[in-house]
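Figure 2 data, in text form.
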Amino acid sequence: MRGNHPEGVLATQALTLPAVPLTVEGSSVLHQMFRLRRAAWRAVGDDERRQITAEAAAVLEEMEGGQDTQTGLYALLGHKGDLLVLHFRRSFEELSTAALRVASLRLADYLEPAASYLSVVELGLYDSTVKLYTRLAERGIEPESEEWRHEVEETLDQHRKAMAPRLWPSIPPRRYLCFYPMDRKRDAAGNWYRLPITERQRLMHEHGEAGRKYARQVQQIISGSIGFDDWEWGVDLFADDPLVFKKLIYEMRFDEVSAVYAAFGPFYVGLRFAARDLATWLEGRLPPWPSVKESEPR
């Protein structure tokens, strides 16, 4: 059926649009959480500690990547770990290489893995998906037909180009990181995956409005982990004031998509420090941020 349709027919069509929203993906992301085996580390002689630290600092500083930061170090707060190493790379192969470089350090003998999280940067396209699917339905194009798939891929390609800076970000140079995984609920009280796509579009739009108020104070990177890890998404928040994490997350829990359909995993909060200051952290002192060398006039 082609041509324009009465509003009521379009509304009915909207309820039967394909359920899965389009997404575009970018950087591969790995969070590594470690505990420092302090007793074992203190037992190492002074000269050997200096050698181990110098080796690790040199390798990790190289992995940081300069302006296009690809690895970041965070001193974790709380009992869940001591150190979080965050990697952004172009592929899982590059992530594996990064993890192997960390594991090959002599310092790794004194770092006990506490947790990890694997994901890829993901941008959901609910608005574009509903508009595209509705337009294709109006033209009478069958879902998953060759023409349908061509139109979908063309739309995705446009978004990949327009959103490239957000899909392939550097790690933001902010002092604080808040990371947590999350799911959408699938239970009797509320099943996100049984809602029509148009209803999910509306809820996600409202959810985004709350977050946009904090855009200048916090930078958010969402990564998808369905099929990669135990939760469905990972959320990284970067800010210079940790109180913004509390305010943002608290406010967003009052919107419907969070209040009814969200389940949250463990939260990790850490303070960024430069790899060149690794010795300071290993000595039990918090390095400054930015590091002294970066903040000195050139």
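Caption note: The chain has twelve helices and eleven strands.
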